[in-house]
Every structure is written in C-alpha cells, then in structure tokens.
Design a protein that fits this description.
This protein is of the alpha/beta class. The protein is built from 15 helices and nine strands. The longest helix has 14 residues.
Length: about 290
C-alpha cells in the first residue's frame, strides 16, 4: 500500500491548482517519490523553483512543511535535537527531596526535556509531513553522512532515549544548487530530478498565473528578455521570483511595453550584482531585439 494514496493525474492537477507550472517529468518524479516513499533529490540552479516545489507539495497534501535550511557547520544539535539545559537546571535546583541521581537523570533526560529540531519533529509529528532539506550541498560532508541514517531507516538515535522510529514516514524533498558534488551514498537513497529555469513560453505561463494584471505582450517580452539574460555569463542569473518581482515593478512604474530606457531604469531590480548589471547594460539592444 503506497504511503500516499494518489494517482498521477491527481498529482498533475494538484500542482496546477497550486499554480505550479511544471512539465511531465516533474509530475512523474513527484508521483513516484510519493508512492515508493523515496526521498526526492531536486538539483538545479538557484531560483529555478526547487524550494517552491516542496511548498506546493505540502499544500497539495494539505500537511505541514518542515524545513531544514542547510549551511556550512550545521550539526546534529541544530538539525535533530538538543536538550533543554535551562529546564534541566531548574529541575535540579527544584529538587529539594534529595532524590538519587539515577532517578533525576531518568527524569531530566526524558522527552519532556528534549527540544525537537526539524528532523526529529518530522518523524515524530502526529501526521505525515513534508520534510524539506534545503540546499543540502551547503552542508558539510560529515552532516551529509549523518543524514543517511534518517533517509535509510526513517529513525533517529538519541543515546539517552534509544532509537526513535518515525510515527509517520515523512515525504522528503532535498534540494541542491550543485555547489558541490553530493555523495553516491546519499544519491542512492533518493530519486533524482533536475529542475532548470523554464523556457520562454513556460515562464510567460508562470507570469500569467502569478502576475495576471500584466498583459500578454508584456509577459512575453519579460520572459524573452530574462531568458536571453540567463544565457550571459553572470554571477547570478535572475530567479523566477526575481522575474515576477521585476514584472510587478514595471507595472508599478506604468511600463506596459519593454524598451531600452525601461530596462536600464530597472535592471538593478532584476540583477543583484553590479558587475552583472554593467555587463547586461552593454547588451540591452541585442537582448531586446524582436522583444517589443
């Protein structure tokens, strides 16, 4: 029996209802991950919609999204659990009956004094959740190795309490911006999906859903311009979210058709590095060609 009873058509319709513009291989990967109870590793450039997929998945399943944001130096205490030392100290100070250390230790190292972090919360939640392990490539290899226990058996070990199995196996989605190569051991435990920036037509479709007040002409111009912009050698290509914000900014400024003046006036809203802005400014005419 699959962990989530859902059909491929229901996945497709759920993503569309959540206004997530997708392609068949994304729908297929999500469906297979759900029915096989396998973590889904989603790789691709920053801003291509990987994190949004987890948010949409939680909304589609009508459940909680538990997010673990990875970073260099992340360890078990921030990801799994830590003890509430202040509460433990207060308990020790309040013990006026002279209880034995054995009795006290059983008390202060019980679940009452445990602070759940995202991983532990995800497997002990009263109902199935979506666990997002975001930007796993930013974490250290040591932390990646630690994740294997969770992703292999969906259980965690707490020395003072023993092994804690999952009450409900979470739906797990990991994202990576490909900053470093992930281990083969981690990849073996996951289904894999690569999400790239959308093409012009798909991005125009996203704009139609997210910025419906923009007319079709402006949506096409924005999508075409951003698509060409991403082909430049930039430090940071515009994300989908930045494209949406740029389109909204153009409308706020009363711009309903792209021209060189409007682009140069607002380019810094789309590109966040001055070096990229200067590089793009010199190419505005060619980037706008046939885009009006």
């Amino acid at each position: 029996m699959p962990a989530v009873e859902i059909t491929q058509e229901e996945v497709r319709e759920g993503l569309r209802r959540a206004r997530y513009v997708t392609v068949p291989r994304v729908e297929t990967a999500v469906f297979v991950a759900l029915v096989l109870e396998k973590p889904l590793l989603v790789e691709g450039p920053a801003g291509a919609g990987k994190t949004e997929l987890a948010k949409v998945l939680a909304a589609m399943l009508d459940t909680e999204l538990v997010r673990l944001q990875c970073y260099e130096g992340l360890d078990e205490t921030r990801a799994l659990y830590e003890w509430n030392y202040q509460k433990q100290l207060l308990r020790l100070q309040a013990d006026r009956a002279g209880a034995s250390w054995e009795a006290l230790s059983r008390d202060i190292f019980s679940r009452e004094y445990l602070l759940e972090r995202p991983l532990l919360h995800a497997i002990t939640a009263p109902r199935r959740v979506v666990l997002l392990i975001d930007e796993v490539d930013k974490s250290d290899e040591e932390f990646e190795a630690f994740l294997l226990e969770v992703l292999s058996d969906f259980q965690v070990s707490v020395p003072e309490l023993g092994t804690i199995p999952a009450r409900h196996r979470p739906v797990v989605l990991l994202t990576s911006n490909c900053a470093r190569e992930l281990s083969e051991a981690l990849k073996r435990r996951c289904l894999h999906l690569y999400v790239d920036f959308p093409g012009v037509e798909k991005e125009a479709e996203i704009l139609a859903l997210k910025v419906p007040e923009a007319d079709e002409r402006l949506r096409q111009q924005v999508a075409r311009f951003v698509g060409r912009l991403r082909k430049l050698d930039l430090k940071k290509s515009p994300s989908i979210a930045e494209t949406l914000d740029w389109c909204r900014a153009l409308l706020a400024l009363g711009v309903h058709g792209l021209d060189a003046a409007a682009v140069r006036q607002t380019l810094s809203l789309l590109l966040k590095h001055e070096e990229d802005v200067r590089k793009a400014e010199s190419k505005v005419p060619s980037l706008l060609a046939d885009g009006r």
